[in-house]
Amino acid sequence: MNAPLATPGQVLDFVRAVEALDDRALPADPAVAAEIARVWSRLRAIAVPAAGLPRSDHPIVGHLAAALGAAAGPAVEVTTALGAVAEHLPWRYGYPRRADAPDLGERIAFAEIIGPEAPFRSEVVCLGVTLIAPRTLYPDHHHPAIELYRVLTGSATWSAAGRSRRVPPGELVLHPSGVVHAMRTEDEPLLAVYTWSGDDVRTTSVYA
Ligand SMILES: [Fe+2]
Q: Can you list the domains of the chain with their CATH numbers?
């Protein structure tokens, strides 16, 4: 899109599409179902910004077209709404630079839409988008928040608590508070929506 700003209403359309995706989810794990319920009970009270969101100049934006274009099935409703605002989200890489992977700041980015420091304010819940370029390791990291990922596009290897598995689009991945986790992409980018809840959504993620 070429508009100079993405309107708050357009961003809310994306959030509502994520809610619809979660409404249709039938998680086998009761902990995942409980987390979905907790997240959306907290998301009912968020402060909507008055101003629109400017275009991002983060290099990860160059991977958006491939990531969004790979959507299929139930993810399409979400990626369509996301596509209308994706270039205008506050993409950033929040970790210190790593000597062993100095380009991670260009290959991994997070757009937090709702949260304590995000355009839509909440002190109790976060919602954002993670985009990881192909052939990239997002190294072991952890945070006190409970995290639930909805994989939109891209199959990647996900690791948590020492166990690894290939996760296809459409899956939900729950990371309990403090559990060390990582993702590795292969030939396609990984695009996923995350939420944070729990007792502490303000403490940022750190590498393990
Ligand atoms: Fe995480």
A: 5-207 (2.60.120.10)
